[in-house]
Amino acid sequence: MSPLGRQLYDELAPLHHRMEEAVARAKDQARGIDGELGVGFLGSGAGSLTQPILKLFRERCPGCEVRMRETQFQDPLGALRAGDIDMLFTCLPVAEPDLTVGPVVITEHRALAVPVGHRFAGRTSLSFEELAGETFFRVAGGAPAYWWDFHVPPRTPSGREIRRGQAVATFQELMTLVATGQGVSPVIASVETYYSRPDVVFVPVHDLPTADVALVWRTGSTGSRGDAFIRTVRDVLATNGGPASF
User: Fold this and answer.
1) Distance (Å, rounded) from C-alpha 233 to C-alpha 49?
2) Measured between alpha carbons, how far is residue 156 from residues 21, 143, 160, 241 in Å?
3) Is 152 within the bounds of a domain?
4) Which three-class secondary structure string do you get for 141-176?
5) Same domain, 194 and 223
6) Beta strand pairing call for 211-218 and 87-91
7) CATH number at residue 150
8) Which of 46, 116, 124, 150 has the most CB within a 10 Å radius?
């Protein structure tokens, strides 16, 4: 391609993409998509973008009922695999051959949840290396090991092992165990906004990688309702200027 051709392509490609999206949305409305769409969520789902996404989808597909279902640590992907839900907002990483990772809706910093009175409770930030003497938690059930290891690392950056104590199955169980002094846990930053409680303090951990929440679905099985929902998520992200952040 010539330099002039490349320049024209770069200038026209975004316009072409927007036209394709507009045509797809018009087809969704013309088809009268109906039925039921199951949307799962771990934690706070798509955070502040959840309501705009659902509102726009209902406007575009008024005949399609959205049913929300919470998933838990112990089996974060099971409901999606079983077909109990069609779409899932969940924390990455998800590296499963039968699942497709779609648009990222939230990018979050990380914090440490500690009980009130803990030696770190008064700190303004922490390095993960400082946590070598603490007790974290194991996960019950069938959560992928790589997924839990990302969110609750088993070692510090220098390789020092971090003890893992009791296994947890749900987020509320985790928070209760933290509050009662059974251990501490890394969490995503939005937890302080959506799950704040008076007996738990959240201290930023400045050297853990950010965590993403994305829309995930079964590979090759979205259907017209799922395709319309994916487009809606992408359009809300475009309007918002990208993923929400914490």
Assistant:
1) 9
2) 45, 21, 5, 34
3) yes
4) CCCCHHHHHHHCCCECCCCCECEEEEEECCHHHHHH
5) no
6) antiparallel
7) 3.40.190.10
8) 46
Query: Is residue 147 domain-shared with residue 73, that is, in the same domain?
Result: no
In the three-class reduction of DSSP (H, G, I as helix; E, B as strand; rest coil), residue 215 is classed as strand
Q: Please state, in angstroms and rounded to a whole number, the distance separating the CA atoms of residues 233 and 103.
A: 8
Taking the CA atoms of 182, 186, 189 and 190 in sequence, report the sign of the dihedral they define.
negative
One DSSP character per residue, 62-79 reads TEEEEEEEEE-TTSTTHH
| Sequence-distant (≥ 6) Cβ neighbours of residue 41 within 8 angstroms | 50, 68, 69, 70, 71, 88, 89, 90
Does residue 114 share a domain with residue 103?
no
Contact at 8 Å (CB) between 131 and 243? no
Name the pTM for this structure.
0.85
- Helix residue ranges, H only, 76-128: 78-81
Tokens of 183: 């251990």
Q: Is residue 157 part of a domain?
A: yes
Answer whether residue 90 shows pLDDT above 60.
Answer: yes
Q: How far apart are CA 89 and CA 95, in angstroms?
A: 15
> For residues 25 and 136, which has the higher predicted lDDT (pLDDT)?
136
Same domain, 199 and 222: no
Per-residue pLDDT tens digits for 209-232: 999 999 999 999 899 999 999 999
129 and 200 fall within a common domain: yes
Residue span of the structural domain in which 191 resides: 110-205
CA atoms of 136 and 160, how far apart (whole Å)? 13
Question: How many structural domains does the chain have?
Answer: 2
Q: Which amino acid is at 56?
A: L
